[in-house]
């Protein structure tokens, strides 16, 4: 599972691929910029068309641009065009994006292309990691298959190929795909039959992203891996090069400053560096304020890995993704890695063989085991990385199968390791509750990716641990589970392209629990499987063979009709589905659609509001408007200025603060405007209790790493970050409930 790098020196030289160190192209682009500048300086005044520079001039540009002294033979060039010697930092500063608008274009013959080539592990245990490296910018994907296997075990091979084609389409929907069939040297291979199977069973001719083999008139490229004949893969190489050169990312115009930062980073030859190191380099090239933006850009290109959800993740920039893969594959390991770890004498010396066995069988990991598997290196970062990608969750239950001295140690659930586990008793218990209120998440329009069910298990297990008090631990297996949220009990079941959410008959708040489960799924889907199509079906409480699309039911209820068409054939009575709507909408993931618990907080004499919401409208208006709505729904009086679009006079805002029990500062990227500083100063002068909430969603415009809020805060307010624990703002239904309970309790107890 590792990358290696090859360079194509010239598109016309198919045999010139070779492994080399990474080259961002900064120097080549800088030379071209200088050439364009000099061409403008040397052209005749009457000429409207730029003239090409003499070859000896263009060859000498690099020496001038980067301050390299030339021999006396170069004197005529220096006399012909006078250019000052410029250090690299100054080159990067001067040659910004606007400078290369006439150079950045589609790759042409003679230009260099750098390929970073990833060999994705085929073992299914690694499928849970694909979203991390199958980025939307994609690149070119080669799907390699054994032609012998396709001809002998057609069904299995077609299923395997279909999985890979669907996975690429999901995560990189516009990326070119090249099908490569191996074992071309075998006498039994009939390439025409192979092509017929691909066309008939995988509809490859209908897939616009698949690159055809136009020379041989096939939909794939047959290859003899063992051949030593020069140029035996020339058609494949040509297809790769042509596909790569047509990518939008290849010709995208970006600042030379960014290229120089990337160049310097990769020359450090480190697995990872602190964020501050990148910012220092970017500042050196006058792009310090663009550090997050440039890292996001290169992350999407797959050049490095940088996540922003927490300060720990934001502070680490992984320059060698292979380091990250190596660490993760020690936990989410295939059979080969498992044998190596099981037979490691150091595992025995550390007394962790039992811990490792429990991880493989039950998916439960001790902190001691994780430290061992990761060589005690960057453990906090790796934990948060797995949490953020829903590959791991806290396991807040004891584990009897562990050694006694570690049963109460910090534990984690690695749900993807449950994939092939079974539990006969659990199967029987899930079968016994099939008559309960049931929702079906249906993915038959496309496919159900590997990892969706495991991530839902991970979120449910964490939520169960947060809310349960004395109840047993969730019962989990590869495709089934029974879990409690307090007094609400339900089963989860994965069947083909469906996930079934089944409430145990007679359990508490079935509609509300289903709403929470759908919110959890939507959170996992939006974070990891963003473009995955799905439908929500409701199973009839009267007849388990009848299902109805949720949206049809909503429309039918609004129209007050008695019947609605079911999925497949037949009709269903609308009234039969009333139990699903006892908590309002099942799909609204932010707004309150059902009844909510009312908070009774008396206001002292002279006060009119429980809380004053102070925020920057431009990047936190939506969050604070939603917060105000939800607090009001729960019986609180809230002062927020969204009704007047932020145009209130200063004295009116000061009055609002004086009339409020608490002052809430909502932290966002540009929060400390003059108006917010004035409001904060007023709250401090009035000795108001100050609550702090921060934007926690990296996809929102107002998000910034928490350290940025501290840096930007006025000196008089920096002590707040030591005295007050900031709460991460939560929009998702399953997280928002706990958020508002905690916030209301802080408002209640504020003095």
TrEMBL record:
<dbReference type="InterPro" id="IPR032171">
    <property type="entry name" value="COR-A"/>
</dbReference>
<dbReference type="Pfam" id="PF13676">
    <property type="entry name" value="TIR_2"/>
</dbReference>
<dbReference type="GO" id="GO:0016301">
    <property type="term" value="F:kinase activity"/>
</dbReference>
<dbReference type="GO" id="GO:0007165">
    <property type="term" value="P:signal transduction"/>
</dbReference>
<keyword id="KW-0418">Kinase</keyword>
<keyword id="KW-0677">Repeat</keyword>
<dbReference type="InterPro" id="IPR035897">
    <property type="entry name" value="Toll_tir_struct_dom_sf"/>
</dbReference>
<dbReference type="InterPro" id="IPR027417">
    <property type="entry name" value="P-loop_NTPase"/>
</dbReference>
<feature type="domain" description="TIR">
    <location>
        <begin position="611"/>
        <end position="695"/>
    </location>
</feature>
<dbReference type="InterPro" id="IPR036388">
    <property type="entry name" value="WH-like_DNA-bd_sf"/>
</dbReference>
<keyword id="KW-0808">Transferase</keyword>
<dbReference type="Pfam" id="PF08477">
    <property type="entry name" value="Roc"/>
</dbReference>
<dbReference type="InterPro" id="IPR000157">
    <property type="entry name" value="TIR_dom"/>
</dbReference>
<protein>
    <submittedName>
        <fullName>Leucine-rich repeat serine/threonine-protein kinase 2</fullName>
    </submittedName>
</protein>
<feature type="domain" description="COR">
    <location>
        <begin position="257"/>
        <end position="339"/>
    </location>
</feature>
<dbReference type="Pfam" id="PF16095">
    <property type="entry name" value="COR-A"/>
</dbReference>
């Amino acid at each position: 599972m590792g990358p290696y790098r090859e360079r194509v020196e010239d598109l016309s030289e198919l045999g010139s691929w070779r492994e080399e160190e990474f080259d961002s192209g900064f120097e080549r682009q800088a030379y071209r910029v200088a050439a364009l500048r000099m061409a403008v300086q040397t052209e005749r005044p009457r000429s409207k068309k730029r003239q090409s520079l003499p070859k000896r001039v263009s060859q000498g540009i690099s020496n001038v641009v980067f301050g390299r002294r030339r021999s006396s033979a170069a004197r005529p060039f220096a006399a012909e065009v006078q250019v000052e010697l410029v250090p690299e930092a100054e080159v990067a500063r001067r040659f910004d994006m606007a400078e290369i608008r006439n150079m950045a274009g589609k790759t042409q013959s003679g230009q260099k292309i750098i390929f970073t080539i990833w060999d994705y592990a085929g073992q299914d245990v690694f499928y849970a990691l694909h979203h991390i490296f199958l980025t939307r910018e994609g690149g070119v994907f080669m799907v390699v298959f054994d032609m012998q296997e396709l001809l002998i075990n057609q069904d299995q091979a077609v299923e395997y190929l279909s999985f890979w084609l669907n996975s690429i389409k999901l995560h990189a929907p516009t990326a070119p795909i090249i099908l490569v069939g191996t074992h071309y040297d075998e006498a039994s291979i009939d390439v025409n039959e192979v092509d017929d199977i691909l066309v008939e069973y995988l509809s490859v001719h209908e897939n616009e992203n698949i690159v055809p083999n136009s020379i041989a008139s096939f939909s794939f490229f047959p290859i003899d891996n063992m051949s030593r004949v020069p140029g035996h893969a020339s058609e494949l190489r040509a297809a790769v090069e042509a596909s790569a050169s047509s990518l939008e990312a290849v010709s995208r115009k970006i600042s030379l400053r960014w290229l120089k930062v990337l160049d310097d980073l990769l020359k450090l030859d480190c697995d990872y560096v602190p964020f501050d190191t990148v910012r220092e380099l970017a500042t050196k090239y006058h792009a310090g304020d663009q550090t997050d933006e440039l890292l996001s850009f290169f992350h999407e290109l797959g050049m490095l890995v940088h996540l922003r959800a927490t300060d720990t993740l934001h502070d680490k920039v992984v320059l060698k993704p292979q380091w990250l893969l190596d660490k993760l594959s020690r936990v989410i390991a295939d059979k080969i890695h498992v044998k190596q770890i099981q037979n490691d004498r150091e595992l025995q010396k550390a007394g962790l063989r039992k811990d490792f066995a429990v991880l493989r069988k039950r998916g439960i990991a001790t902190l001691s085991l994780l430290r061992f598997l990761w060589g005690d290196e960057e453990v906090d970062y790796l934990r948060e990385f797995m949490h953020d990608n829903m590959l791991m969750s806290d396991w807040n239950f004891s584990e009897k199968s562990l050694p006694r001295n570690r049963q109460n140690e910090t534990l984690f659930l690695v749900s993807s390791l449950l994939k092939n586990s079974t539990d006969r008793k659990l199967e029987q218990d899930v079968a016994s509750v099939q008559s309960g209120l049931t929702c079906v998440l249906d993915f038959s329009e496309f496919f159900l990716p590997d990892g969706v069910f495991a991530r839902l298990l991970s979120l449910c297990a964490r939520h169960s641990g947060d809310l349960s008090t004395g109840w047993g631990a969730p019962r989990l297996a590869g495709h089934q589970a029974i879990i409690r949220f307090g007094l609400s009990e339900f089963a989860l079941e994965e069947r083909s392209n469906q996930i079934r959410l089944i409430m145990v008959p007679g359990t508490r708040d079935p509609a509300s629990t289903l709403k929470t489960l759908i919110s959890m799924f939507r959170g996992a889907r939006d974070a990891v499987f963003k473009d995955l199509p799905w439908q929500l079906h409701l199973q009839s409480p009267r007849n388990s063979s009848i299902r109805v699309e949720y949206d049809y039911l909503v429309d039918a209820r609004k129209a007050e009709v008695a019947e609605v068409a079911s999925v497949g054939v037949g009709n269903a009575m609308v009234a039969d589905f009333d139990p699903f709507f006892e908590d309002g909408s099942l799909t609204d993931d932010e707004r309150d659609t059902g009844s909510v618990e009312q908070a009774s907080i008396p206001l002292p004499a002279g006060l009119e509001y429980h809380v004053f919401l102070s925020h920057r409208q431009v990047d936190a208006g939506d969050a604070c408007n939603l917060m105000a709505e939800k607090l009001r729904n729960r019986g609180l009086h809230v002062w927020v200025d969204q009704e007047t679009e932020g145009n209130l006079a200063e004295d009116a805002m000061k009055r609002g603060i004086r009339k409020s029990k608490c002052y809430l500062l909502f932290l966002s990227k540009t929060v400390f405007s003059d108006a917010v500083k004035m409001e904060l100063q007023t709250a401090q002068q009035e000795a108001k209790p100050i609550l702090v909430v921060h934007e926690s969603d990296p996809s929102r415009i107002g998000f910034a790493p928490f350290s940025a809020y501290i840096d930007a805060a006025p000196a008089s307010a920096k002590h707040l970050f030591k005295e007050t624990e900031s709460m991460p703002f939560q929009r998702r239904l399953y997280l928002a409930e706990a958020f508002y309970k905690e916030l209301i309790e802080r408002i209640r107890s504020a003095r």
